[in-house]
Amino acid sequence: MAPIVTDNIIIRLVSMDDKPVAELIRDTINTAYSSQNSWTREGDTIAGDRATTEMVERLILEQGKPNHLLCAFDGSIVVGTVMVQLEDMKPNEAEIRMVAVHPSYQSCGMGRRLVDASTEFIRSLGRDVMSIRVLENRTDVMQWYVRLGFVATGDRMNVLDESLLKVKGVTFLKLSRSI
Ligand SMILES: CC(C)(COP(=O)(O)OP(=O)(O)OC[C@H]1O[C@@H](n2cnc3c(N)ncnc32)[C@H](O)[C@@H]1OP(=O)(O)O)[C@@H](O)C(=O)NCCC(=O)NCCS
């Protein structure tokens, strides 16, 4: 994809050149997911870090085989991320994961821009359904996705490691939209 440049922010696929900033990418994801300064966060429901350096480095190394990692950069600052998952998906579908905006950049439309960029990217792959899984107790972010056009499908998925759940019994709900 061609980089999307607005203001000073560039949203683009990461490449091997970004391996030195893997830790910055990890930190942005983990801060967004757990900081009390995020207006919505997963850390209240699931304990532990969302991303590790190894996970980010693997995504960079295996970029496009088949998943993709897009990041938003403000100069050298990693301000946001979105992972496009193609693995284990139907041929016409892609799931977005790790949608994260550093708390200092939230509530300014950055999250929407990341979802828009991933939408364009998924379309460019010839896929026309986009999905997201959201913890069922997170009504604030659920409503945000609904405002972006996502609709609950009724499908539920268990959290991979239920021992990390701070709110017992919570599952993911799948939302999707045609693009
Ligand atoms: C979810 C997240 C990506 C949104 O990023 P963002 O940059 O704040 O998103 P935007 O600025 O595009 O949109 C913010 C919206 O939330 C609304 N909002 C801001 N504060 C809010 C609050 N306290 N409660 C509810 N909505 C709020 C804004 O009004 C805006 O609404 P609009 O899109 O209808 O105008 C970001 O909060 C984040 O990284 N959260 C932690 C990680 C996470 O939970 N990711 C989602 C996993 S499913």
How would you explain this protein's 3D organization?
The protein is α+β, with helices and mostly antiparallel strands and 179 residues long. The protein has a domain at 4-128: 3-Layer(aba) Sandwich (Aminopeptidase). It contains 4 helices and 8 strands, in the order ββααβββαβαββ. The chain has helices at residues 22-34, 53-61, 110-124, 139-147, and strands spanning 4-6, 9-13, 68-74, 77-85, 93-101, 129-135, 151-157, 172-178. It has an 8-stranded mixed β-sheet with strand order 1-2-3-4-5-6-8-7. Bound molecules: coenzyme A. Coenzyme A binds at residues 32-33, 38-42, 99-101, 106-112, 134, 140-141, 144, 147.
* SS-based class: alpha+beta
Helix content: 25-40%
From the N-terminal CA to the C-terminal CA, the straight-line distance is: 17 Å
Oligomeric status of the shown chains?
single chain
Instruction: State the CATH class of the domain at 4-128.
Output: Alpha Beta
CATH topology-level fold name of the domain at 4-128: Aminopeptidase
* Beta content: 25-35%
Unreliable residue stretches: none
Mean pLDDT, to the nearest integer, reads 95
Shape: globular
| Radius of gyration, taken over Cα atoms and rounded to an integer in Å | 15 Å
Q: Kindly report the name of the CATH homologous superfamily of the domain at 4-128.
A: Gcn5-related N-acetyltransferase (GNAT)
How many helices? The count is 4
- Give the distinct bound molecules: coenzyme A
Kindly report the spatial arrangement of strands forming the biggest sheet. Answer: 1-2-3-4-5-6-8-7
**How many beta-strand elements?**
8
